[in-house]
Amino acid sequence: MGDKIEVSGFRHFFQTEGGPVQATGTIDLSIKAGEFVTLVGPSGCGKTTLLKAIAGFLTPSEGRILCDGKPVRGPGRDRGVVFQELAILPWRTVRRNIAHGLEIAGAPKAEREATVARLIGLMGLGGFEDRYPHELSGGMRQRVAVARTWAADPEVILMNEPFAAVDAMTRLTLQEELGRLCAATRKTVFFITHSVEEAVFLADRVLVMTKRPGTIKAVLNVPRSTAGGRDWDSFTSDPGMQKIAGEVMHLVHAERV
Amino acid sequence: MMQRWIWRLLPLTPAALALLAWWAWFALDRPPPSVMPPAIDVVVTMANLAFGGRLPGDILASMARLLSGSLFGIVTGMAAGFVAGLNRPIANFMNPLVVFFNAISGIVWLPLVIGWLGIGSPLAIFLIWNTVFFIIFQNTVLGVQLVPEVLELSVQSLGGSRWETIRSVTLPGALPYILSGIRSGLGFGWRALIAAELVGATTGLGQLIFSGAEYHRADIIVGGCLLIGAIAMAMDRWLLLPIEKRTVIRWGLVTSGQGR
Question: Which of A153, A184, A208 lies at the terminal end of a domain, its last residue?
Fold first, then answer.
């Protein structure tokens, strides 16, 4: 399969009162259809800027971004986003949050209900369908955010440190659930994190960024066969995975700000 | 169970305390009735005015003016607030006008507007609108601007249009501020209404109070004030609070303080 996302010659500057500030160095990358790519880098390196540009939330100062060979001109339903901040609507119940993308697309009621029911099952949200977000724990809310993005059935999913705000225990569960969800749906995922373990655990390919203005300094393949079922027990006891994690850690360490 | 009942009586205690103080004033120091009437006089006078008197007509006239003026103010204030809150150049254009006209009190308008609209309901409705509009406008602008951008982006990346974003994110997100604006707007709307009716109307609670003042009837003045306050409290409790319970409180945007 061809490249789903293609970023070439991307560079971005923010306009501030003190003049332009360079947010990223020149970045080239491509993501194949069905691939899970994670990006690790120190804070402020431009990870989020790159993700926002792919999402269409900002126009790159330089370079171009293609999705399915077509230039990105703004946000669209072909590229779903899971935000670090809990981007679910407080005034919609769990069910209606998940169904929102399908409502926008004008999907028939039966289809909406079937999709919502399937995602509620996959994400372990059963029994919470009619709750409002403020009645849920942080981990539950982030499950809703993931389900909300998945339900709209975008081909590409962009995730910006989605689990950074949940507690460490819940994070382990969410990471395993995400792995299962991706295996069940075969989406193209671009996932930003500052956690090395998370990056290696989830990825087919890990990209490591330098500090600001960030460029991609290394690309490491994570062989699926080694990853087994993508659960933390087999991950931590797999020497192959630990070796990759060690390498990434070494690369990231050198970029400490 | 017992405790619950005690807590439910809490909102009634200020009224009970006020009555007690009123009674004590008369027990300790008999003020002349033109300064402060005894409670019983107020009750009798209001009952006479209510049955076969002018009171029902006055209440209806005032309520109709208040509700139409406020509704007009809420609709136009929200519409202008959304346009300005979502559009920086329009906000820059409108803000000086809003600050300018907000500073001109209703009383100043009165002599001019009597010339334009004559005496009667349109005048009162204009003065209420002139008060409510600015409060709703400024609250709406603030509410719109405080909706987290990430929620709007999330709807756009689900394929939502600008209109869908406004409908499903901006409007409910700004609602706590809009409702707060409506609450203060209604209160100031009452003030504007009574001021308008003192001069610019022949019916209404403002006129009732004014006629009481002319004949040195403190019982009518106090009775009219009590009635205004009671109607305002009833509207808050049975009109505004139910809306809040179904929306901003239900959504967890505003805590009701219950269960603490």
Answer: A153
Of A119, A153, A187, the residue at which a domain comes to its end is A153
Structure tokens at B62: 């005032």
A178, A255: one domain: yes
The secondary structure of B179-207 as a DSSP string is HHHHHHHHHHHHHHHHHHHHHH-SSSHHH
Give the HSE-up count for residue B222: Cα atoms under 13 Å, Cβ half-sphere: 19
Residue A141: count of CB within 10 angstroms of its CB = 21
Chain B within 8 Å of A56 (Cβ-Cβ)? Answer: yes
| Pairs of CB atoms within 8 A across A/B | 69
Sheet containing A62-67: give its strands across.
A27-32, A3-11, A62-67, A70-71
List the pLDDT tens digit at each of the 257 positions of chain A: 578 999 999 999 999 999 999 999 999 999 999 999 999 998 889 999 999 999 999 999 999 999 999 999 999 999 999 998 889 999 999 999 999 999 999 999 999 999 999 999 988 999 999 999 999 999 999 999 999 999 999 999 999 999 988 889 989 999 998 988 888 888 999 999 989 999 999 999 999 999 988 999 999 999 865 445 578 888 888 888 899 999 999 999 888 86
Check whether residue A183 and residue A140 sit in a common domain. no
- Do A191 and A132 belong together in one domain? no
Spatial contact of A174 and A166, defined as CB atoms under 8 Å apart: yes
Evaluate whether residue A35 is within a structural domain: yes
Rounded to two decimals, the ipTM of the complex is 0.91
Report the C-alpha gap between A156 and A77 in whole angstroms: 9
In this structure, the answer to whether residues A70 and A177 fall within a common structural domain is yes
Mutant choice from B154, B156, B166, B244 vs A, greatest count of A C-beta within 10 A: B154
Write out A209-238 in H/E/C secondary structure: ECCCCECEEEEEECCHHHHCCCCHHHHHHC
Asked whether residue A32 falls in the same domain as residue A109, the answer is no
Residue A142's domain comprises 87-153
Which residues of chain B does A112 touch, with a Cβ-Cβ cutoff of 8 Å?
none
| A219 and A192 within one domain | yes
The rounded distance, in Å, linking the Cα atoms of B51 and B236 is 26
Does the beta carbon of A81 lie under 8 angstroms from any beta carbon of chain B?
yes
What is the CATH architecture of B54-246? Orthogonal Bundle (1.10)
What residues does A32 pair with on adjacent strands? A3
Instruction: Kindly state whether residues A71 and A178 are assigned to the same domain.
Output: yes
